[in-house]
């Protein structure tokens, strides 16, 4: 929809990957709609995933005992986070929708993306107890996980060896995104792109682009335990 702002946080090393194609097609489709699209290409940016003292500029709140959560929170409040983190927070603040594009690594996200979550979504900026979940500081924003897997859909079915794919979405969608107040749209999952035909891969890309054409009409999921572990 024209005027909407979208941030794509993209975590893949290879532009020719399916993730790379998904990202490129997302940018093209959303720009066609008149959206402003920003991409944080984490590997290209050489985003530093480790949460360390280097993220805080100047004096520490407690130099005798380094507590990352507290230090990042105080640094955010005092404008003393490092420039790269302030820039990522600015992008999140402006966005109506944040799309995370990544390959599934060990039932989760690649370390570089997890590092982005650890360091960007700090207390004071994204949450501030009791301002979490529906009152999280990023409420009124949408988030969507778009990812690829190695396993096929059957493996991630209720009785498959990996279990229902929704089980592993709980920490990412609920523990991170919903905790920070995001309304979560249904995930976009491309199962096993390495092992399917070229035709099937093209279908994965076209169905994603088709979905993007009406993405602004979508209702967020009901991000409650039952969505993940029950029958809704
Ligand atoms: C450390 C690690 C942990 C992992 N853990 C898990 C796990 O827990 N669970 C799990 O299921 N998997 C796991 N995997 C596998 C991983 O999720 C998959 O390898 C990955 O999701 C595949 O996506 P890709 O974009 O990297 O594929 P790629 O191999 O880059 O792309 C797949 C195919 O798509 C083709 N392609 C690209 N663009 C297009 C286009 N425009 N049109 C048609 N074809 C195109 C490419 O040429 C390629 O042939 C893990 C992998 C690693 C490295």
Automatic annotation (TrEMBL):
Cofactor(s) recorded in Swiss-Prot or TrEMBL: Zn(2+); FAD
Enzyme class: oxidoreductase
Enzyme Commission numbers on file: 1.10.5.1
Subcellular location: Cytoplasm
Keyword Zinc part of the UniProt annotation: yes
GO cellular component terms given for this protein: cytosol
Chief subcellular location: cytoplasm
Keywords per UniProt: Cytoplasm, FAD, Flavoprotein, Metal-binding, Oxidoreductase, Phosphoprotein, Zinc
Gene Ontology MF terms: dihydronicotinamide riboside quinone reductase activity; metal ion binding; NAD(P)H dehydrogenase (quinone) activity
Catalytic activities: 1-(beta-D-ribofuranosyl)-1,4-dihydronicotinamide + a quinone + H(+) = beta-nicotinamide D-riboside + a quinol
Pfam family, one: Flavodoxin_2
Annotated ranges, domain Flavodoxin-like fold: 4-211
Functional description taken from the UniProt entry: The enzyme apparently serves as a quinone reductase in connection with conjugation reactions of hydroquinones involved in detoxification pathways as well as in biosynthetic processes such as the vitamin K-dependent gamma-carboxylation of glutamate residues in prothrombin synthesis.
Subunit record text: Homodimer.
Family of this protein: Belongs to the NAD(P)H dehydrogenase (quinone) family.
Name by which UniProt lists this protein: Ribosyldihydronicotinamide dehydrogenase [quinone]
Classification of source organism: Eukaryota, Metazoa, Chordata, Craniata, Vertebrata
């Amino acid at each position: 929809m024209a005027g909407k702002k979208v941030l794509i946080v993209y975590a893949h090393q290879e532009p020719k990957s399916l993730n790379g194609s998904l990202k490129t097609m997302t940018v093209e489709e959303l720009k066609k709609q008149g959206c402003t699209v920003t991409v944080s290409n984490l590997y290209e940016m050489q985003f530093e995933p480790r949460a360390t003292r280097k993220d805080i500029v100047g004096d520490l709140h407690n130099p005798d005992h380094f507590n990352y959560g507290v230090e990042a929170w105080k640094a955010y409040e005092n404008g003393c986070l490092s420039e790269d983190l302030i820039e990522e927070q600015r992008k999140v603040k402006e966005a109506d929708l944040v799309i995370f594009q990544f390959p599934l690594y060990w039932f989760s996200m690649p370390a570089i993306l997890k590092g982005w979550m650890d360091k960007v979504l700090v207390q004071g900026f994204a949450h501030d107890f009791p301002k979490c979940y529906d009152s999280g500081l990023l409420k009124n924003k949408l988030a969507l996980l778009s990812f690829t897997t190695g396993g096929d859909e059957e493996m991630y079915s209720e009785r498959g060896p990996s279990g229902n794919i929704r089980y592993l979405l709980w920490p990412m969608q609920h523990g991170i995104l919903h905790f920070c107040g995001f309304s979560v749209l249904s995930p976009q999952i491309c199962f096993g792109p390495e092992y399917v035909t070229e035709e099937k891969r093209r279908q994965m890309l076209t169905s994603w682009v088709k979905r993007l054409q009406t993405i602004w009409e979508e209702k967020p999921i009901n991000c409650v335990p039952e969505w993940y572990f029950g029958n809704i």
